[in-house]
Amino acid sequence: MNRIFRYSSCQFERSREHFNSYSLFFLCFFLISFFTSCAQSKKEITPKTYIAYKINKTIIIDGKASEEVWKKTKWSTPFIDIEGEKKPTYKTQVKMLWDDTFFYILATLEEPHVWANLTKKDTIIFHNNDFEIFIDPDGDASNYYELEINALNTVWDLFMTKPYRENNTVLNDWTLTGLKSAVNINGTLNNPKDIDKGWTIELAIPWKAYKKGYFDKNIPKDTFWRVNFSRVNWEYQMNNGDYERKKDNKGKLLHEYNWVWSPMGVVNMHEPEKWGYVYFSSKEVGKKEQFVIPNDEKIKWKLFELYRSQKLYFKNHQKWAIHLDSLGATNFKIDDKFIIPKLENHSFGWNISVKSPFSNKELIIKEDGEFKIK
After folding, report:
1. CB 65 within 8 Å of CB 55
2. What does the alpha-carbon distance between residue 24 and residue 29 come to, in Å, rounded to a whole number?
3. pTM of the model
4. In the chain, which residue ranges form alpha helices assigned H by DSSP?
């Protein structure tokens, strides 16, 4: 989760220093109006892609990544600043694999001073340097999962019914049952007298933790999930020999750095429609697979642009637009195919839909930001 949201048009900064797990449930109501008023990046960003290959032998989760399958697996592209414009100070990369039980993730984080002091599960882990995983299995931009972990292997797992921009519910007491995680420090933890190389995180996330029902078959064989990774990194200072987040000369915490795998274009991880694509190939690691983002997904990106325009229209006019022309919307082309969006207003709000020329399916974005396929 992002600690501070910064937008040039809003000139708004939100410190979460006094943010606790209970206030998660109340903060969302304030953010409904806030996120709809904030500017998005003008830079067009294409989500990253990664092919996770299948393995037939369970990985031992010890943080050492000594298995041969990890050695055969390619690293992701290095993380970049969340807005997609700056190169981070320290390098971060991930690898991914899967089998019929687990989604395996390996992350390496360069860090000259590895420190952490939070040891209680479901505490606010981003008050330490941390590594974060965001997963939206069905890509509807709702009902998604977040996992945060620090260098002490302390976990915070939670479930979001919707992003903060909407009237959402945050289930902080949701537990990622069956999770296996381990951290390996390449150096010494909490020791300011030496220089470390960094830390490694190894995880096995059980598919069953994301099942919607007992009979739900949710293992993503030869398909993709929307996934993103974030690294939160704070400047530090010493206090009686202990690490702590650095403050300015007025005693205010300095901003954290947010480094991500797939850039968001804005300082906000909670826009699931912008996350990367992880394709789970049934081919074994070492073999060749290709994955191209489907054209229906590109239509989806356009629908979310219209969603944001409609939200902005409401902010400015205190009512929803009833014609797409009012949103400056026009027909658009994808792969030389004309795409014609349709706006429908109803007593509960509105929806914008497109009949895909690629799949013949109806793609729909609702007023609450939920994406549907019929």
Report:
1. no
2. 10
3. 0.89
4. 24-37, 68-72, 295-317
